[in-house]
């Protein structure tokens, strides 16, 4: 029944024009506080919901944006809670602007036809490399974009990055401080300019400062997924040199790693200490709870959507285009002093 109420009904009951009701709904025009209060009360009493399609026709925007994750293996988008938390942050930032959010995974051959088909107002793109064809296609769209975790070299792009190098350094320094000297890293793909590259650079810096030798045999470039972590664990039982700690560059990899170690009879942290990266919600509730590098994922999503909406609406464009978010270390049960 409530869906049959129209803006005409609200105007008739309030004894004002349709334009006045529209101005009240959109917060525009000159309307007296008394009239605003009266119209809003009728809207509330009648359970009236403004038509999103009508609003889109009026301001030429769809009020729809997408969080786009390129080059992610099939199934990983749904399996990684990092993206759920990121979208939660984006949605919370977009809610008061009546903007809806969708999450999409794409591959290198994507033609981005979905942008026109869905009349998207803008994109938040996660982890794209600027030398790729997909990146050039994104630029060719000519719509507002914010790039997350991409470390783009052009300062004219709107982007938000973590201090990934500091995160790699903090996690490695923590393990060195516990007495570990043979520290493996579960990196995901190491490609220059990506987040894993910078985290690995932080790892190498911490080793150099402590006079500890790094070696390619300590680097595991498995996919940043639960399965990737699990597969690495299967190779560690008889691995030489004997690794006493692993720094996984994502929490989901660490989760898979810990389960895989359990299945081959190795205990965390008694046999190996493990450190993750991201501090997703599950990290504190695992057994053992996961020591990890913390980033504020929800806040990152909120900053990204504000930056995107500023572009869409033509506001705040003088603000800083590049934002670097700090990280911190959350010490929990998965890392202990190495007694060997």
TrEMBL record:
Keywords: DNA-binding, Transcription, Transcription regulation. GO terms for molecular function: DNA-binding transcription factor activity; transcription cis-regulatory region binding. Residues 5-59 form the HTH lacI-type domain. CDD domains: HTH_LacI, PBP1_LacI_sugar_binding-like. It comes from the Bacteria. InterPro entries: HTH_LacI, LacI/GalR-like_sensor, Lambda_DNA-bd_dom_sf, Peripla_BP_I. SUPFAM superfamilies: lambda repressor-like DNA-binding domains (SSF47413), Periplasmic binding protein-like I (SSF53822). PANTHER family: LACI-RELATED TRANSCRIPTIONAL REPRESSOR, XYLOSE OPERON REGULATORY PROTEIN. This is HTH lacI-type domain-containing protein. It comes from Paenibacillus stellifer. The lineage of its organism: Bacteria, Bacillati, Bacillota, Bacilli, Bacillales.
